[in-house]
Specification:
Helix Hairpins, about 10% strand, rod-shaped, Rossmann fold, 10 helices, 6-stranded parallel beta sheet, alpha/beta
Length: about 240
């Protein structure tokens, strides 16, 4: 948004330069300050555009000191506006590319986050969930805390980011309040618990599922209001036991 507003500002400045330049050229041209008399605003506009475009056909040339000084200023101002706009645009693309490679989320990407599924961590459960969501074409993102895992996930074609799931400032970037669903599976009980606390604080109205592998963690998760707790070991044990009956 900041880059777009800056580019718009430079576009307005460029338009003002053309308008002011055309007006001054018209009056100077009528007074005989060029090799040919400029009798129409269209001719003045033509000269300004050709000059700013650095084409320089040579059909209209300043012949007095005041006209030459004006043309020099016109060229310098035009080049400054053009180069500044190019710098802003190119830096925006470069910054977006750097953010993409580093795993940081860009402002543009944040604006597109709504009704998305957030997978926090890349434990065994989230690995399978990601596969199923990708097959269904669902809108989801994966958040991990280390660059190595991030690189591996990106190579699989997933939309992934690097952030500390135990820090509120990091997690607020991912618009959890607008999320459709949040699943936490970090393969680390302590980190999953902290991530659940952060998620519930940021997006208390959003449904949250947390993968837990021990009774103590389940107890803590229930204490902070997590409605859906998944214990893969318990589920597997119950399934196997049912087959023995």
């Amino acid at each position: 948004m900041k880059i777009a507003s800056q580019v718009m500002a430079y576009a307005v400045i460029a338009l003002l330069v053309v308008i002011i330049g055309t007006t001054i050229t018209y009056y100077l041209g009528r007074a005989g300050n060029f090799n040919v008399k400029i009798n129409t605003p269209l001719t003045a506009l033509y000269f300004v555009v050709v000059t700013l475009g650095t084409v320089g056909y040579g059909d209209i040339v300043p012949v007095t000191p005041i006209a030459r000084a004006f043309v020099i200023i016109l060229i310098l101002v035009g080049l400054s506006v053009f180069l500044s706009a190019v710098t802003i645009i190119s830096s925006g693309f470069v910054n977006s590319r750097i953010e993409s490679l580093s795993g940081r989320i860009s402002r543009m990407e944040r604006r597109g986050l709504a009704k998305h599924i957030v997978l926090i961590g890349y434990g065994p459960t989230n690995i399978y969930i990601a596969k199923m969501l990708k097959q269904k074409g669902s809108k989801f993102i994966i958040i991990v805390s280390d660059k190595v895992t991030f690189d591996r996930i990106k190579s699989l074609g997933y939309r992934a980011y690097v952030a500390d799931e135990t820090l509120a400032d990091d997690m607020e970037q991912f618009e959890l309040k607008k999320a459709k669903y949040i699943v936490i599976d970090t393969s680390d009980s302590a980190r999953s618990l902290y991530a659940a606390i952060i998620a519930k604080n940021i997006a208390s109205s959003r449904p949250v599922s947390v993968v837990a592998d021990n009774p103590d963690m389940e107890k803590h998760l229930k204490g902070i209001g997590v409605e859906h707790i998944i214990n893969p070991i318990e589920i597997a044990a119950k399934d196997i036991a049912s087959r023995m009956e």
